[in-house]
Amino acid sequence: MKYQSQKVAYWYFLAAMALFGVQVLGGLLAGWIYVSPNFLAEILPFNIVRMIHTNALIVWLLLGFFGAAYYLVPEESEREIFSVKLAYVQLVILLVGTLGAVGSYLAGIHGGREFLEQPLWVKFGILVAAVIFLVNISLTVLAGKKTAITNILLMGLWLLSLLWIFAFINPDNLSLDKMYWWFVVHLWVEATWELVMAAILGYLMLKLTGVDREVVEKWLYVIVATALFSGILGTGHHFYWIGTPGYWQWIGSIFSTLEVIPFFAMMSFAFIMVWKGRKNHPNKAALLWSLGASTVAFFGAGVWGFLHTLHGVNFYTHGTQITAAHGHLAFYGAYVALNLAMFSYAMPVLRQRAPYNQVLNMTSFWLMTGGMSFMTFVLTFAGTIQTHMQRIVGEYYMVVQDQLGLFYMMRFGAGAAVVLGAILFIYSQIVVRREIVKPGPVAVPGE
Amino acid sequence: MSEILTKSRARNVFYGGSIFFVVVFGVLTAQSHSHITQTATAGMELTDEVRLGKHVWEKNSCINCHSLHGEGAYFAPEVGNVMTRWGVIDDPESAYEILDGWMMSQPSGIEGRRQMPHFELTEEEMRGLAEFLRWADQTDTQNWPPNDAG
Ligand code: HEM
Ligand SMILES: [Fe+2]
């Protein structure tokens, strides 16, 4: 750790990991309700469980981004954070808001727009925290060295905070409500968050592979250009059937297909940098997570996104388990795995010890990634049957769902593997002090 | 490649192009906004009753089990066309009665079947909810869903 103020990242990462735990346990419970529908039905209905599952995900990913920014900006700008105190104030506001939201959900008090269920005071809290963050980090960057990584990171964070305004705009007209709702949801994960992802990935590549900064930065601008050029008009893939004009079917299909490009580029970027750099960084776990994140993001967002994004396909698959399959793998690959890559890289440094946790950490990577892939496959099978039976044959929803029990059981099993992986990950980050497997002798490369 | 595409060129293309796409998106959004209010949802007036119904829908977070125009959770049936499915899209009184009957009979308590919670609603709220669902159902959704099953 070069700068003292980087230490704030530690608390952000801890808070993020705690909520990560809440998120996956909530998911596991939701998965169990699919298998055994009467479970807790009277006390804790499915809608509340799902709300906690999705909200915890979003908040911990944001906490991870904030932490990542506090960690990497001092190194990039070559100076301490403008105000460490403000950074802690921001964290406290976010934690109070989070606890308040979870508490009020359990008490049955919540809004009714998917993902944006936070009570109004929590939404304001998030806004205040975001403003504090932006001021704090922008003043740090402005006073120090400016790099492409901080440029892109800041632009992503500013824009995503700006889009939060739409969380407050809820027109009485349902179709308008839906259209503006996507300004937060789609323009977050398929535009502004991609900038944050590219910046963090670029930083990790710089540190882990030792490749030349010029090369990394040029790549980054190309990647984020393709992300925004496709992702902004790509919003149209949500405007097919909600009362918006028919021309979105073509605009949405074409531009959202192009959204595959930035994800493919990020994957290629990561592998090429590793190949070019050839630096033997000791933190192999962080490298595994970085490559894993960019690869799974390509499959989850790119391949599974394209699977149902053309309007002729989406007409049949819209709002089925196909959507659920895609949502899970895309979030996992692009944002969960990326955050875990950053934690894996930074936590040992923040705790001032060598990366002594790698075997457990890498095991957790395979458990979680295997589990999420399996879950995606079984949900895709379930969704294919659902699409055919319900949308083509015209059987009623509940009749079709009754046929899908086997898939939901397998999904629960996959979820259990993910939870196990998550616990192992958290354990490896905060408890383990020694490597549990001795590294082999350094081999002399063959002729 | 490296001479033509320098870092500063890449950056300028990024900024310039992004502004261009934001502007195009803004124009299309404005056009879509008026299409929604003037055409797509103009089939039925957005009354206070409908507003109340939307509020009831939100307050009880129906969206975290059901889907509405295909968006939401996928745990319970699509309700964007439920009034068509029940054959009461043009009949407010029957819409209210059948919805009220359905909501009052929940949770079914049937073992092994997904449970819908019991919601304590006033008659006014229930009527609002029925009107909201009729209002949503008359939206021009480009003929989605493919059939009444939703
Ligand atoms: C990391 C990036 C992405 C994430 C995190 C993500 C996540 C999600 C989520 C959670 C939903 C469901 C939203 C809801 O509740 O209604 C969704 C829907 C959708 N996504 Fe993505 N997505 C990503 C990228 C993409 C890409 C690149 C494409 C296209 C190539 C795509 C295509 C779609 C489509 C077409 C839907 C609507 C599905 C439906 O009609 O039901 N997504 N996405
Ligand atoms: Fe999208």
From TrEMBL, chain A:
Segments traversing the membrane: 12-35, 55-74, 86-108, 120-142, 149-169, 181-206, 218-241, 247-274, 286-307, 327-347, 359-385, 405-427
Domain Cytochrome oxidase subunit I profile residue range list: 8-431
Membrane topology, record value: Multi-pass membrane protein
Pfam families (UniProt xref): COX1 (PF00115)
Key words, A-Z: Electron transport, Heme, Iron, Membrane, Metal-binding, Respiratory chain, Transmembrane, Transmembrane helix, Transport
GO biological process: aerobic respiration; electron transport coupled proton transport; respiratory electron transport chain
Domain of life: Bacteria
PANTHER family: CYTOCHROME C OXIDASE SUBUNIT 1, NITRIC OXIDE REDUCTASE SUBUNIT B
Official protein name in the record: Nitric-oxide reductase large subunit
UniProtKB/TrEMBL annotation, chain B:
Superkingdom of this protein's organism: Bacteria
SUPFAM superfamilies: Cytochrome c (SSF46626)
Keyword Lipid biosynthesis tagged: no
Transmembrane segments: 12-30
The Cytochrome c domain, residue ranges: 48-137
GO molecular function, one term: metal ion binding
Keyword Transmembrane part of the UniProt annotation: yes
InterPro entries: Cyt_c-like_dom (IPR009056), Cyt_c-like_dom_sf (IPR036909)
Keywords: Heme, Iron, Membrane, Metal-binding, Transmembrane, Transmembrane helix
Protein name per UniProt: Cytochrome c
Organism: Antarcticimicrobium luteum
